[in-house]
Design a protein that fits this description.
Helices cover about 55% and strands about 15% of the residues. It has a five-stranded parallel beta sheet.
Length: about 140
């Protein structure tokens, strides 16, 4: 089974001072599922790494993607229209989180690794009663 990774867990993995760092590090150490990074979270993670931890952290993240340490899930044309619909129903979650929801629906993924419990816990996806939020 696959897991979609949201911005927060990827940032927390890099920032030892982040309150989620230990949980996320343990999760990644034990994970045996396919870990998918939605392409839409990449700019958000890159920005946070660059502005909060510096250019070296951002570069390390990009190198890990280039080395295929994580699989990148692309946004498809039909995903954009569905993302707009999700945003209409849940306007406060924003484009990135809405796109993660849509990719999860398309891939039939029920697990999302996220530090954002507030947004993902209240979304009702099409393919399951609720998302399983990890770690």
């Amino acid at each position: 089974m696959a897991v979609l990774l949201d911005t927060g867990v990827l940032y927390a993995l890099a920032d030892r001072r982040d309150s989620w760092h230990r949980r996320v590090l343990a999760y990644f150490g034990d994970a045996d599922e396919a870990l998918l990074v939605p392409v839409t979270v990449i700019p958000e993670v890159s920005y946070l790494l660059h502005t909060r931890l510096g250019p070296a952290a951002e570069q390390a993240f990009v190198r890990s993607l280039a080395a295929r340490e994580l699989d990148v899930e692309m946004l498809r044309d039909q995903d954009v229209a569905r993302t707009a619909a999700v945003l209409e129903r849940y306007p406060d979650i924003g484009f990135v989180d809405a796109s993660v929801v849509v990719m999860a629906e398309r891939l039939k993924v029920t697990q999302i690794a996220t530090t954002d419990r507030r947004h993902f816990a209240r979304v009702k996806p099409r393919h399951t009663d609720a998302f399983v939020l990890l770690p």
